[in-house]
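help with this:

***
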Amino acid sequence: MFALEHEIAQWENELLPLRGTERVPLLLLLSWHLRQRDCLRASELGTEAGRLLPLAGLAPGALAQAQARLQLVQAEVAWLQGALDAAESLALAAYATLCAHGDGDGAGCADVHWLLSSIAVDRGDHARCDAELQAASEQARGAGDTARASLADAATARWAVLRDAPAAQARWGARFLPDNGKLPAPLATWVHDFRGLLAHTSRDLGTAAGHYMQSYEAALESGQMRGAITAAINIGDCFASLNDHESALEWMQCALDLARPTGWPRSIGACQTHTAETMRKLGRLGAAEDLLREALHILAPVSGARTYANALFHLGELSLDKGDYDTALDAFSRLAQRAEALGQADFRSMAQRGSAHALSYLDRPEEAYEAAERARQLATAQGDAMHQVAALRVLAMLHARHELPPPPGMLERNPALHFLHQALQVAASIDGYVPPGELLDALAREYAHAGDYARAYDIALDAGVAREKSHTQQATNRAIAMQVHHQTEHARSEGYHHRELAASEARRAEVLQQTSDTLERLSAIGQEITTHLDASAVFQVLDRHVHALLPVNTFAVYMLDAPGTALRRAHGMEAGRPLPDNAIPLSNPRAYSVRCLLGRREVYIAQVPLKRHAYTVPGTLHNQSVLYVPLMVGERVLGVMTVQACHANAYGERERLIFRTLCAYGAIALDNASAYRQLQDAQAQLVSQEKLAALGSLMAGVAHELNTPIGNSLLIASTMQQKTEDVERLMNGPGLRRSDLASYIEDAGKASALVMRGLHSAAELVNSFKQVAVDRTTEQRRQFDLQQVSNEIIATVMNRIRSSGHRIEMDIAFGIAMDSYPGPFGQVITNLINNALLHAFDQRHNDGSAGTGCMRLSATVEAARVQIVFEDNGGGIAEQYLSRIFDPFFTTKLGQGGSGLGLSISYNIVTALLGGTIQVSSSPAGTRFTLDLPLVAPQLDGAAPASIY
């Protein structure tokens, strides 16, 4: 119900790094436990929690209970500010919500009853206060919450003292004994307040002040600020009763210092009321009246509270001292009305007694006598001897000042003596009470007035003895006051020491937590920075986190250029605007960045000298604090990173540590980005070489395949040329016989048929090679037949297959139509064939025997996909290499014709361009590649083509 200071500090620290709905649990806790410590912040946190609750994904019951708790915070804030109707309305609404959704732990309903009891007190309805506290206790015990139940019982005991101290002592005196010697701070606030009130009513002021002091310290520790203010007021009252008015005013001021910042009317009014009473006793009547008037004005919203009644009583007493009897009578009359509403006998008796006093001086003796008699009867019924004595003295004063009928059964010489003797008899019944000298002096005067001078003289002697005892008592009181002052100061200093220790520990924990959070955050930032392999991305991440963690007006990264002669600004932001490119020669001795780079050390200027502004880059701002840190990886310096701020001394040790860490991460990330860029360049060069090699292999195959038909045609053509020359010679010579002509025609027919067959074959090969070349070089998407394209692809590598002594089989049905990229597809099949020729059959003999290697290409269609299988009967792939064969540059034939890019390129083509998958399985009996491709390849964004290499 009430949390301690170190718990609040811990929750505040835990809340700092949280975002969004993660904050909800701590927002609810802090809003509740700050409700008296800081009403405004409690309300702000409650508002934030209320905004996030619907997004937190809570079950309906849990959501309703959380919202009811926030309503209860609003209700308590309204109560503290004196808006009792609004507070009660909000509390009852929260109670209805909790009951409707079954308050899970019972704490919520108990807390509602607790608050309603406080509202009832401020209304002056103590009967309802008792009922609400009893309900809170029962609700808490039913839920097994003994801490809340004990709090409700202690509050009940505290209020019971004001009605009937002996009964409260009998019922509650033996309760609330701690198990381990010390009560928890929330409970100690109320238990020590209860014990302090008991001691106060029995005039044991030293003990009372000690208990109030413990209540004060416990209230501060547990955040019960209203209880702390009340305890400070009560301590001041104890000192005032001991005539130590200086200490009394000190504690009243302490209470007022706590109350004024809160704006709580009841607390501020109570402080002013008790301060005014102390000033009245010091004779400062004007200042006392001003304070009481202000207190009554402030207390107007809670006019039903006991505090308001107390202010009325003190105003009446002050008015009597000033001789303003009309004001006094008005104050005591209003007090009588409030006393009846409160049902508190002490105020009833005090109101009637004060009214009697004022009426007497207003020459209304009969009314005064009736009021004084009512005061006596009320005090007698209550068993309050002190109030009886006071009422009897007023009755004696009335008979001394006015001609009034004698009281029935009077045995003394006059009514004044009758009532004064009764006052002495009642005073004698009070243990340890010494009748004041003023009472005996009044009795002596009355005897002297009656002519009994001997008796008057004897009583005057008794008055002197009484005054002596009174002086002794005053001395004792002063000693007690000094002791109490010492005890309270010791307790205050000890409490202050403990609070300082707790605050120091909280600050230490906060620093440790902040350090831990910063390290954790920097670690996460480092991981984010170093995951990027692009320099511009690294700059953006650094820029974002630098601005989030440090005070920054200008942030820039300078990289050393390739010749190593200048620093060039690779990234720069100033006041949210990008900075233009800039180069700083390393020969510039004035540049902080050059000093940082050449010295390989941090450069921090807490206050930039005015003369340095002359060297500021045109178009940029004059910053007051600058910090430069070199970007180093090992012994290599890559550049310099800088942050700059408009105000001086912007970067303490913590900020510089954070920036050094970011620079270390940034240097690693930028070095990685540079290495990755070089790797990409090398890879692109190797890929280009691989493609050129593939094109060269294609041309070699084309040349070999065309060589046979064209060579045969050339041979036939040269033979026919020879035969034609022979026929021409015969025609021009001996003569051409019929048989020679017939033979020539027959040979010509055969030759032309052979030539046509060879040239048709060459034309078909040229067309195939041309299509393959176009597909390879343009990566154009088109519709094609899988069998036809596969035949064309195999034709381009057939020469290499035959020359290696191996063979290839194809089992692909005609009519498998695809809408895809035949060129990249052909490159995949070619890479698979070349991979098999290079790796699968390296241990076989090329003798044409049964051991000759065999490759097989097949395809099957399933729905909208085609599964293409390429397999060989080679030696297989070692198991430890299977997971790496698609990695770039991985090869077991480095330097023997293998580049390590063939299968990597094939994998990228299949997955990125063709929209399929490629899998491999292998055993000593051979290797099998399975391509699962869609018949229609996915559409690619023309603005950003897929990078397959």
Observations:
- The two ends are 67 Å apart (CA to CA).
